[in-house]
Amino acid sequence: QVQLVESGGGLVQPGGSLRLSCAASGDIASINSMGWYRQAPGNQRELVAAITTGGISEGSTNYADSVKGRFTISRDNAKNAVTLQMNSLKPEDTAVYYCIAAPNIGMPYWGKGTLVTVSS
C-alpha cells in the first residue's frame, strides 16, 4: 500500500503561481511513476503531468498540451515526494488536483485532492 498526501492548493489570481506537493509513504519501492491529474466541475479527470520515478526511464516527464511551458513536475527522492510548480495560471486551470502513484503492477494510488482556484 502507498499513501499520498497533497498540499499547496489555494486561491491565486490569474498570472500567479502555486506549488503543489505530494508526499508518498508506504511501499515506495513498488512505484514506477508519479504525477498529477485534475478535475474541474463537469469535466472528466485529466492528466496534467507525470514523471517516471524508477527504471531505465527514470526522470522522464510528460505534460498535457494545455500546461506545457507553464507547469513543471519534479521529484525529491530523499523525501519520496513530487512537486508541481504552476506558473502563469489561468482561470481554466481551476480544478481539484489529485496526486497519483502508479506501481509496476496493479492499480494506481490516488491522493484525496487539493483545490486550486484561479480567480480575480
What this model shows, in words?
This protein has no helices and 11 strands. By secondary structure, it is mostly beta strands. The strands form 2 sheets. Strands 2, 4, 5, 6, 9, 10 and 11 form a 7-stranded mixed sheet that branches. The model has no long low-confidence stretch (mean pLDDT 94).
Individual helix count: 0
Cα separation of the termini:
40 Å
Strand content: over 45%
The computed structural class is mainly beta
Q: What is the H/E order? A: EEEEEEEEEEE
Please describe the biggest sheet, giving its number of strands, its sense, and whether it closes into a barrel. 7 strands, mixed
Give the mean pLDDT: 94
Q: Percentage of helical residues?
A: under 10%
The gross shape turns out to be globular
Report the uncertain regions.
Answer: none
Q: Total number of β-strand segments? A: 11
Could you outline the blueprint of secondary structure elements for this entry?
Layout: E1 2-7, E2 10-12, E3 18-26, E4 31-39, E5 46-52, E6 61-63, E7 71-76, E8 81-86, E9 95-103, E10 109-110, E11 114-118
Parallel strand pairs: 2-11
Antiparallel strand pairs: 1-3, 3-8, 4-5, 4-9, 5-6, 7-8, 9-10, 9-11
Write a brief structural summary.
This protein is an all-beta fold and 120 residues long.
Features:
120 residues; mainly beta; seven-stranded mixed beta sheet; four-stranded antiparallel beta sheet; 0% helix; 54% strand
